[in-house]
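Appendix B. Chain record.
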Amino acid sequence: MSLRQTIKRHYKIISLLRLRPMSYEDVQDEMADDPCSVEEKLLTSQRTFQRDLEDIESIHNIVIKCNRSTNKYYINEDVEETHSQRLRENFDLLNAIRLSKSFGNQLIFEERKPLGTHHLAGLLHASQNFLEVKFEYHKFWDTSISNRRVKPIALKEARNRWYLIAEDTKDDIIKNFSLDRIKNLEITKDKFKPIEYQAYEEFKDSFGIINGTNEEPLKVILSFTPREGRYVESLPLHHSQQLILSNEEEIRFSYFIRPTYDFRMEILSYGDQIKVIEPESLKSEIKKELKSCLGNYE
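Structure tokens predicted for this chain:
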């Protein structure tokens, strides 16, 4: 059995048990109903299934137990790291794309421009090996093009885009560069000393890619309509999101976050489906933005 089959079988088992507890027979039945699993020959003996559960715990840090009274397996402890989860999701997506070529036009993607992800491997190599990089940068807000030479620190995803966090050699300021605006990337042989900058810590209380502003993180409470609140509960706005109230009239969440421009724009994007409860300062900012928006129609 190939390594590819084993990895795919692990991912399939994880996905199924995240839906609900299942017996060995339930898992095999679900795989038998999945054309991709059948094509890949993922159905196995119970002995192999038990070995898979041990490997999943060892490799993915996901502990799967069996309820002996029902003989059904369930995920007891799930501490899968974010990057592992994303790898698994991308693996599922790639297999869906491959499957769609055989089953017609049932997989529909949102049309958008390339995200510059072809730069990821090179920039990751440069940041890990402390190599300066050069590129042309095409700004969002105008048509200007600038030549940049930077010291790459980290790569960050925000709002379906990837960004390079790097120190600009021109002024020694740490800046963010959207990968889809980078052209003619060149990894130089010029080494630089490691930069004391903890990217995760810098961004953990921020929304999106904006940081380094004067806003301090604070407690924010947002109230959503029940319909929108259920959506936000399933896809949190920020990792600090906590449910604090849920009834037939509203769903409230609390956040510990910097109220930066892009967070305010996110709030405004929900229209009349959201209300800022606190703090008063953020409520005032949103009111000001709404009045300015209405002014465009006078």
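Further analysis of this model is presented in Appendix C.
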